[in-house]
Design brief:
Blueprint lengths: L6 E2 L15 E4 L2 E6 L2 E8 L2 E6 L57
Antiparallel strand pairs: 1-5, 2-3, 3-4, 4-5
């Protein structure tokens, strides 16, 4: 069994989605919503839906969310722009489809 850490955001009076008034950013396998200076993502559970704070960049010199991080030398595995380190691959880790991927920051790496 895998435990997933999450940090519930404040209670909302609306459901995030198209037309909710918050900017949306695709972040790996989900959509983040920019909300008052931070980033929310939907979290569906057996007892209902709530919103979590999305991942913060793990770089030593960054305090932004992974959906918005623009560090030039980012090594955070959950940031949108981390680039695959496989030889011959020029795609971002979030989009990499290398069949034999060995990149430590790609989400599908073995």
């Amino acid at each position: 069994m895998t435990t997933v850490e999450h940090a519930p955001a404040e209670t909302h009076r609306h459901t995030h989605g198209p037309g909710c008034g918050h900017d949306a950013i695709v972040h790996r396998d989900h959509v983040d919503y920019l909300h008052d200076g931070h980033v929310h993502r939907e979290h569906v559970t057996e007892s209902g839906v709530h919103y979590d704070e999305c991942d913060k960049c793990r770089c030593a010199h960054c305090s932004d969310s992974c959906a918005q991080c623009s560090c030039a030398e980012c090594d955070c595995p959950t940031c949108n722009h981390a680039m695959c380190s496989c030889e011959g691959c020029t795609d971002a880790c979030a989009n990499c489809t290398c069949a034999d991927c060995t990149c430590a920051t790609c989400s599908h790496a073995a």
